[in-house]
Each structure stands twice: as structure tokens, then as C-alpha cells.
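TICKET: design request
STATUS: open
ATTACHED STRUCTURE:
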């Protein structure tokens, strides 16, 4: 027996791929907004100035 692992590589439909992509995009948007709020509050507490922009990849 070999030690190779088998992964479930089933083909998915276009609709399922788009659903997964949209779900991931929505989760990222939610997390970016949460990070933006946290960074905004942290920056304002440290500098007493309002930040102009935030960069998120």
C-alpha cells in the first residue's frame, strides 16, 4: 500500500462554483469591514486624528 492520500476531486457545476466564489467574496467583505473598524479605532486612539484611507489586499 502506498501512502498517497486521495482527495475528493469531483467536478462541480458552474453554478456551484459561482455560489462558492460569491460566498468567499461576501466573507472577505465582512472581515475587511471588521478590520477597517478595528484599525480606524486603533489609529484614532493613538493619533487623535481620523485616518484618510486603509489598504486591504
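STATUS: resolved
RESOLUTION: sequence designed for all positions
ATTACHED SEQUENCE:
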Amino acid at each position: 500500500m502506498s501512502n498517497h492520500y486521495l482527495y475528493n476531486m469531483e467536478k462541480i457545476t458552474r453554478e456551484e462554483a459561482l455560489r462558492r466564489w460569491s460566498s468567499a467574496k461576501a466573507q472577505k467583505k465582512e472581515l475587511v469591514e471588521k478590520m477597517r473598524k478595528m484599525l480606524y479605532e486603533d489609529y484614532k486612539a493613538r493619533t487623535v486624528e481620523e485616518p484618510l484611507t486603509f489598504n486591504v489586499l
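CLOSING REMARK: The longest helix spans residues 14-47. The radius of gyration is 20 Å.
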